[in-house]
Amino acid sequence: MKRSALCLFTAAAALLFAAAPFAARGSLGAKPAVFENFRLGTYVRLSLYGARNAEEKLKAADDIIVSLENLFSMNIPSSDIARLNAAGGGWVAVSQETTRLIALAVEMADFTGGAFNPALGGLSSLWKIGSPDARVPSGSEISEALKHTDYTKIELRSEKGAHFAKLPRGMALDLGAIAKGYVADRLKDFLSDAGARGAIIDLGGNLDFIGEPPRGGPWRAGLQRPESPRGEYFGTIESKGLSVVTSGPYERYFEKNGMRYHHILDPATGRPAQSGLSSVTVADSLSYRADALCTALFVMGRRRAPGFLKKHRDIIAVLVTEEGEVLVTPPARDIFRLTSDDMALAARGDGE
Ligand code: AMP
Ligand code: MG
């Protein structure tokens, strides 16, 4: 089970300070209305500050989560993605929302040179990492599945208000590295339109924020220290309108014969990426971008991620190497704060 990779101490702080000053200032209610449930394969927690009819809004937000999960999950047989994966190469009628997410996923795959690849569904089904049936597939199973991962062959078509998608025979989609980000974006739009003055959207490893905390100042996300107990942070990122997303091999894995197999696959090998990194955090105004990018940077790893980040200097990212060195890209420097004494910032902050 995947649990939150990023946790918040702002939420805790907000609760700690839940007494009069904020309510008395007549600003945001200091105590949030909270919705929590297991959704999207993870713990989801929505905290809403200062909204009228907060319970109703949270219920409506949960309806959005459930409806999108029912479209995008590989594991719900009636979902658009499961039907597409089972179609054996034919056109399948899907919702407009599904074509939109597939198009964004293909865009991110292009942008990352295929390090993020939404067409790894065949491989995910072989490994089943995160399920009790997880196993190490044979070399021939992996090479067969790898033949069907060319995401440039995904086709989308819209006609008279109806929407269709088609995969080459043998291909299956897995949107697990981008869907939570997409859902976070939808929730942020919905809750902002619904008048939320402050909110924390926590979808497992995907965090997003609206407005400001009741005590003012920016929201702050705590960055999970890789391999440490949940809730231990190595640093913080200030978020003014940014979603903050972390990917790491510690989030989901299984062990077999003394080897650890984690859930982020290298599309070049069909096996868990040998990254040299122990976590990647990306902050972006669009959560789907942050989500896909942190998975991609993890796949690129210690060797290739710095070159990519040098070419794309606007990416706000914090990378932790397996040795505990912390690489911070230039636009992340002002908003990232290292809080662990035993971890060191890389001499150059540009990911080099
Ligand atoms: P994340 O937790 O966002 O890094 O996403 C990891 C999930 O995305 C995995 O559990 C797989 O379902 C899927 N996935 C694994 N490797 C990749 C990859 N290289 N590109 C796209 N999706 C992937
Ligand atoms: Mg991701």
Describe the structure.
The chain has helices at residues 9-16, 20-24, 54-72, 80-85, 96-111, 121-127, 139-146, 179-193, 287-311; strands at residues 6-7, 33-39, 42-49, 91-94, 155-159, 162-166, 198-203, 206-211, 219-224, 233-239, 243-247, 253-256, 259-262, 265-266, 271-272, 277-284, 316-321, 325-328, 336-338, 344-345. It starts with 5 loop residues before the first strand and ends in a 7-residue tail after the last strand. Helix 8 (179-193) packs across helix 9. The protein contains 9 helices and 20 strands. By secondary structure, the chain is of the alpha+beta class. The strands form 5 sheets. Strands 2-3-7-8-11-16-17-18-20 form a 9-stranded mixed β-sheet, with helices on one face. Strands 1-9-10-19 form a 4-stranded antiparallel β-sheet, with no helix packed on it. The chain has a 3-stranded antiparallel β-sheet with strand order 4-6-5. The chain is globular, with a radius of gyration of 20 Å. The site of adenosine monophosphate has 19 residues, from helix 9.
SSE map:
Blueprint: E1 6-7, H1 9-16, H2 20-24, E2 33-39, E3 42-49, H3 54-72, H4 80-85, E4 91-94, H5 96-111, H6 121-127, H7 139-146, E5 155-159, E6 162-166, H8 179-193, E7 198-203, E8 206-211, E9 219-224, E10 233-239, E11 243-247, E12 253-256, E13 259-262, E14 265-266, E15 271-272, E16 277-284, H9 287-311, E17 316-321, E18 325-328, E19 336-338, E20 344-345
Parallel strand pairs: 18-20
Antiparallel strand pairs: 1-9, 2-3, 3-7, 4-6, 5-6, 7-8, 8-11, 9-10, 10-19, 11-16, 12-13, 14-15, 16-17, 17-18
Helix pairs in contact: 3-8, 5-9, 8-9
